[in-house]
Specification:
With 157 residues, the chain is of the alpha+beta class. It has helices spanning 10-31, 94-98, and strands at 40-44, 48-49, 57-65, 68-75, 78-86, 108-114, 120-126, 133-138, 141-142, 144-148. It has 2 domains: 10-104, no CATH class; 107-157, no CATH class.
Length: 157
């Protein structure tokens, strides 16, 4: 009789495969601008008091990965969560607009983490309200490894 290798996945295994497939789909959407469509799914919670002084305004990322973000929008002692999936970008904070600024149109790039070996890094880049772009680029050191300066837009090409 021939040797037959078989295994039983079970309910837990099916659920685990489903979770991994969903994570791969979301991260793939973030890395490819929603598979070329530029689609962004976004929703916000209601405003609730956060205990901060009324003269404070800021945005704070709780989750920031390719394809998904959860951002706390803080405005005059209140907070609102902005949930995004797909081609994520800067959420709209009405307090910035009231001050004559725009929280969704500033250009920036930042190193999210340095890859093993210290020569390459994963960058997150936002330019003028476009969807967030993620890329791997060279790390530029100035004088010492502690002074890391990213190029103006490492994901531009």
């Amino acid at each position: 009789m021939p040797f037959v290798l078989s295994f039983h996945i079970g309910k837990f295994g099916v659920a685990l495969i489903g979770v991994f497939a969903l994570v791969a789909l979301v991260v793939g959407a973030g890395l490819t601008n929603s598979y070329g469509s530029g689609l962004r799914l976004e929703t916000n919670t209601g405003w609730v008091s956060d205990g901060a002084p009324r003269d404070t305004v800021w945005n704070s990322h709780f989750v920031d990965i390719p394809g998904a973000s959860v951002v706390g929008l803080h405005c005059h002692g209140r907070v609102q969560l902005s949930l995004q999936a797909g081609a994520t970008g800067w959420p709209h904070n009405p307090c910035y607009e009231a001050m004559g600024l725009s929280s969704d149109s500033r250009g920036s790039s930042e190193i999210k983490f340095i890859l093993p070996g210290g020569r390459k890094a994963v960058y997150k880049s936002n330019a003028e309200g476009d969807p967030t772009r993620w890329c791997i680029g060279n790390v530029i050191y100035v004088d010492s490894p502690e002074a890391i300066i990213p190029p103006t837009d490492p994901c531009s090409g």
